[in-house]
Amino acid sequence: MESKKSKKADLERNKVLFAEIGMVVSLAAVLAAFNVKSYDNKAFEGLSRSDRFEIPDEPIIPNTEEAPPEPPAEIEIPMTDLVVVEDDKTPANEVLPVDYGDAFNRAAPELIRVEVPVEEEVEEDVIQVAPEVEAEYPGGYGALMKFLSENIKYPQLAKEGGITGKVFITFVVEKDGSIGHVKVAREIGGGCGAEAVRVIKMMPKWSPGRQNGRPVRTSYTVPVSFSLH
Predict the structure, then answer these.
(1) Which residue, among 185, 126, 184, 193, has the nearest Cα to 157 in the 3D structure?
(2) Which DSSP category does 81 fall into?
(3) Are 137 and 205 in contact (CB under 8 A)?
(4) Which of 32, 74, 42, 213 is nearest to 131 (CA)?
(5) Domains, the chain, ranges and CATH?
(6) What is the C-alpha separation between 229 and 222, in angstroms, rounded?
(7) ∠ Cα 157 196 147 (to 5°)
(8) H/E stretch holding 89
(9) What is the per-residue pLDDT for 117?
């Protein structure tokens, strides 16, 4: 059978040409390698190996690790000499039990606690405002008002000025019931206050106030009315 390949596509004809081209390229590469400039070794002449290759010294790091603590010294415990005694002998340092008898075994008697009331001390000169027992006029409050109305005389100056109202008088009922420290707490004028003080001082003795069963000085206030009707 006749081959249908073209003469241009037939590579067998050019095999010799390709081999020659490969040899030329290889030869050119070898020549180029010999023409490469080598390093000048004169600069390294006279230098030792250590001078040519200097290795910088690494910094020295001090060892900061603490030494382990020393083990504690062993403490010697002195041994106590044991004294061996016979059963029928008592060591000199042994404490024998003491027999207290029946008195020790009896129960202690129960203590009886007695509470004594402590009386409140009342100072002698303190004036009580609201004692346990109030001071009282003989016959009571009604008798007091009757006494005042029978003894008060309307001052002439108050009549001429048409002055009316209430005068308040404070006083102290002493321990014996007598009246002292009489003062005008509220005045209306026209001589009414002075007239009320005069009559208060005329009062008989009162029943004194009492605190803890004892008589005490008591403060008292009495209103005295003045009216023209």
Answers:
(1) 193
(2) P
(3) no
(4) 213
(5) 134-226 (3.30.2420.10)
(6) 21
(7) 120
(8) none
(9) 59
Backbone angles phi, psi at 207, to 5 degrees: -85, 120
Residue given tokens 């109305």 in the structure block:
149
Phi, psi of 68 (to 5 degrees): -60, 140
Distance CA 43, CA 120 (A): 123
Measured between alpha carbons, how far apart are the two ends of the chain, in Å? 179
Q: Name residues whose C-beta falls within 8 Å of residue 194's C-beta, 6 or more positions apart in sequence.
A: 155, 184
Which residue stretches of the chain have pLDDT < 70?
A: 1-15, 34-69, 71-124
pLDDT in tens, 61-115: 455 556 666 766 666 666 656 555 565 555 555 555 555 555 545 555 566 666 6
Check the CA dihedral 132-134-135-137 and report its sign. negative
Q: Residue 55's pLDDT is what?
A: 46
In 53-108, alpha helices (H): 102-105
How high is the pLDDT of residue 45? 52
Residue with tokens 């002195």: 78
pLDDT at 59: 47
Q: Contact, 172 vs 217, CB < 8 A?
A: yes
**Alpha carbon of 223 to those of 58, 127, 162, 209: distances in Å?**
115, 20, 19, 20
pLDDT of residue 12: 61
